[in-house]
Give the backbone structure.
Amino acid sequence: MSWPWIVLLALAVAVVIGAEWSRISSLVGADARKERDRSKRKASWKLIRSEEEEFAESVQRDLAGLPTIEEKDRRS
């Protein structure tokens, strides 16, 4: 292979790397490491439910369990 072809191949590789640099840096850059560390920390978090949320859900369950009146029953 002659040297002009090697130069063209190197330029083509440089163009592809330049065009895809934002995607490459998001995979292997310092920001990617921070994001991976953050996602690992977030995976160990636990959701703490408040009493208000539990109360609201219990009211919704109770309301869903109540009998309903059909339209034909209301008319009579």
